[in-house]
Structure formats: C-alpha cells, structure tokens
Design a protein that fits this description.
mainly beta, 489 residues, four-stranded antiparallel sheet, 4 helices, single chain, flat, 15% helix, 30-stranded mixed sheet
Length: 489
C-alpha cells in the first residue's frame, strides 16, 4: 500500500526536531559539566586566595597582591578577557555580594576578642569572576557562561607568640629520661629566658638520682633569668650550682610547635658556568646540576680564586662540595636532592640564601671554614647538620618575610641529628626548630653571639668554659596564631 502523498517528508521533520533536542541535551551535559568543574576550581582558588590575603594582612604585607598572586597560580589571573579577581576589606561599602558570616555583638560588655571578631576591617573578601565560552551551547543561543565565586577570611589582630612559651632551650621528647642533659665542666648562662623539658620521666631515687626529665652533671653552674620547668623531675648532679635559678618547677606538658610550610624550589633547565680568566672567578648560573665542586668545574688547568653564584635556584642531584676557593651566594636558593652540602676549609659569604635538603644527606661544616651569612634559612627534610673542627661563622636568620627569625628547620618526619659547635668567634641568631631531632650544642667559651632559641626532641649541652645564650623573642621565629586566620565563608 502506498503512503499518502501528504505524509511524505514528515520523518525528516521529526528527525530535525529530535536533532535539536539531542544537541540541547549535549550542550547541557558537556557545557554543564565544564561550568560545574570551573565553579569548583574557582571556589577553591577563592578560598586559598582569601587565606593568603589574611596571612599577608596580619604580617602587615600587601594582602591584595598576595590574593591576586595565589589566584593566578590557581589559573585565575586578574584583568583578563576571561577571568578577574577583586580583593576588598569587608568594611568597603557597596560590595556585591556583601560580606556574610560576620558575627554581631550581642553582649553589653563584649570582650576584646568579640570586638575583633565583629569588626568588618578584620575580614577580607576575594571575588573571582570566570567566563567560559560555550561549545554546543551556541546552538541554542548561549555563547558563554559566567561563574562568580566569593570567599571571606578572618584576619584578626595578632600578638607575637614565641614558640614553646618562649623557653630558650626546649626538649619536646615526651617520655625518655634526660631529654635535656647538661654535662661537662662549663657554666651555662641564659639571659631573658629559661629551660623546658616536656618529658614526663620521673626519678624515684631522691637526691642521688642519675636520670630525670632533665639532668645535669659535672662541675657546672647553671644560671637562668626565668625558670627551669620540667614535666618530669629535674635530676641535678651533686656538683651543679643552681643558686642562680629563680624557679625549678614541674609543669604540665605542652603540644609541639606548629609545622612550617617549606618553600617549593624547582629548576626549569640545566645550569651552566662561566669563567673570568682575568679575575679567576668561576660563576655558576641557575639551573640543574649533577654535582657542584669549583675545584672540578673550572676549565681544565684554570685556577679558581672565587666561586660566585648568580641569583636564582640551583637543583643539585649529587651534592655540593666547597674545599678551597671562597664562595659568594646572594639571592640564591639551593635544592639538594642527593649527596651533602659540604663546606670544608672554604669561606662562604651570603645574603638572602635558602638551602633545602630534600633527599640529600644534610649539611656539613668542617675544618677551619668561615661562614658569614645574613638572611639565611636551612631547611632539612632529610639529613642532619654537623659541625666538625673549629669553623668560624656568623649566621643570621631572615629579618622579614615568611621565615623571619627561622635559622634551621627540620620537619617532624626528620629525626636526624643536629650537632652544633661554637666558640668565641661564632655568632648565631634565629630559631633552631627540629622537634624530632637530637640536638647537641658544644660551646667552648661561647660567651657572646649565641642568640638562638633551640627546640629539639632532646637537647644535650656540653663543652668547657662558659656558654651564654642571649634570648630575644624579636630575633626568633614567631609564627602567626592559627586562630587569627580562618575561612568564614
């Protein structure tokens, strides 16, 4: 039977209409998933940007730049055709959308903290706008999609808060005996601070004890300006003079200090060297190296009077060894992923230098090396720190930035030892923070220049003559109180 003439072509119409519907569903599925994914990424970027801005604000840094930089790192740069970033304090009038989640004072006599929490000047809003071009959506007349996401962070007022309550020497070991041990025939004098041992080890043998949370032995005089506090008992030797200790008390245990975010170093290409034959200077240029050793990196038969490092990042896969020629390194970052960073009889002069040992075996300063460095921080994810011989050094932690006051840092995952040796020619300023590491400080007449806070798993003090620690909290690492920074929306 033949179809009626008026029914011819109806299938094409139905197929065409169905195709439009299918394209519509495709647009919804494909473009919808893109919009949803971008919305989630933009929200994450806004959250991290707001926290970065809050941290910068309490450090009295440029919080707008901090937020914009973090947003750009997450794929949302400011003032482009497709993305924009707005950063404002919540006390700005006319914000769209307005800040939300700020508490309202209900008490007739609010506390200082309640006033701070309710002040719009302590909140930062980050708004990210992201525009995505449509794909299949164009078929149904939609050329682009716009996501607008906001995040608000609290950046409350911050009072400086020294680590472990400001003790110049602190051992964080919880249970073992002699977490702090003072030996040798030398006098220990701590100015403006005291000693703390977190170990709960308690001696049960009375005045004749041999071990305790802290113990001392030898012909020694211990002087502190504040107190010796131990969670367990303090076991002092019969020849230890404690007449200059105002307070010896058992106290409650405390938590470990917060961890430090170690900076991320990376190299985009291979490094290189150049040689100045007139002045006999070997210059290293930033990049990746197998091993660095000026004695072998110089052109064949050439003498190296000095080795210089141009500013930048150096990734070292098999250690660095400096055995003779003086070294100058300003504005330099070293990432040591294998071998050791060794200074043996050479001179190192530096300013604004960071060394991160991550996979390598640590730092070694030995023989008669001379080290003069300002604004320096040593990070050791792996490996330890060793002084051998009698090096002369002046090491000063950064005086600003994220790592202000931090000289040595080892995360809790690294339990390698730190061995420090000093004398009257040595100066050290800044915090040594290594909560899982045994730290030994050997001071032979180290009467001036030790201006550090020393925090380890255990701390052993030994040497001859006098050791003086001048503690100034302004010279140490004082991280912001975590309660002063939080995401509120």
């Amino acid at each position: 039977m033949r179809p009626k003439a008026q029914e011819r072509g109806q299938a094409l119409v139905i197929i065409a209409l169905a195709a439009v519907g299918l394209f519509g569903f495709s647009a919804l599925a494909i473009d919808g998933s893109r919009v949803f994914s971008d919305r989630r990424n933009a929200q994450n970027a806004a959250d991290t940007s707001a926290l970065s801005a809050a941290l910068a604000k309490i450090r009295q840094q440029n919080y707008v730049s901090a937020a914009e930089l973090r947003a750009a790192e997450n794929g949302y740069p400011k003032d482009t055709a497709r993305t924009d970033v707005e950063v404002n304090l919540c006390n700005v009038t006319g914000l769209n959308p307005p800040c939300q989640g700020i508490p309202v004072i209900t008490s007739a006599h609010p506390t200082t903290e309640e006033l701070a929490r309710a002040s719009t000047t302590n909140y930062i809003q980050v708004k990210i706008t992201s525009i995505l071009p449509a794909t299949f959506g164009r078929i149904v007349g939609r050329n682009e999609f716009t996501n607008i996401l906001t995040a608000i962070a609290y950046a409350g007022p911050v009072e400086p808060k020294p680590l472990v309550d400001g003790y110049a020497i602190a051992a964080m070991e919880r249970h073992d005996w002699d977490a702090i041990n003072h030996t040798g025939n030398f006098n220990l004098d701590i100015n403006n601070s005291g000693i703390f041992s977190n170990s709960d080890y308690a001696s049960t043998t009375g005045n004749g004890c041999q071990h305790g949370s802290m113990s001392s032995s030898g012909n020694a005089v211990i002087s502190v300006d504040t107190a010796i506090h131990t969670v367990g008992t303090f076991c002092s030797g019969n020849n230890t003079d404690l007449t200059h200790v105002p307070d010896i008390t058992q106290v409650s245990a405390i938590e470990d200090p917060p961890t430090v975010d170690i900076p991320h170093f990376s190299c985009s290409g291979g490094g290189s060297t150049s040689y100045d034959a007139t002045n006999f200077i070997l210059t290293y240029h930033a990049g990746s190296f197998g091993k660095i050793d000026p004695d072998t990196d110089a052109p064949p038969g050439k003498y190296v009077r000095e080795a210089h490092f141009s500013p930048g990042t150096y990734c070292i896969g098999n250690g660095a060894s400096f055995n003779g020629a003086p070294v100058v390194a300003d504005g330099v970052r070293f990432l040591v992923t294998g071998g050791a960073f060794t200074l043996n009889g050479s001179n190192l002069t530096c300013n604004d230098m960071m060394i991160h040992v991550n996979g390598g075996s640590g730092l070694s300063f030995s023989a008669t090396s001379h080290i003069y460095c300002n604004n320096v921080t040593f990070f050791l994810t792996t490996g330890g720190v060793t002084w051998n011989g009698n090096p002369e050094y002046r090491l000063y932690a950064p005086t600003g930035g994220d790592y202000e006051g931090l000289l040595f840092y080892m995360p809790p995952s690294n339990s390698s030892a730190i061995n420090i040796r000093g004398n009257a020619t040595c100066e050290m300023t800044g915090t040594i923070l290594a909560v899982s590491s045994p730290i030994t400080v050997n001071g032979n007449n180290w009467t001036n220049g030790l201006n550090s806070q020393i925090i380890g798993d255990t701390v052993r003090l030994e040497g001859n003559g006098n050791m003086v620690i001048n503690y100034n909290p302004d010279d140490q690492y004082n991280p912001p109180d975590p309660s002063s920074i939080m995401l509120t929306k």
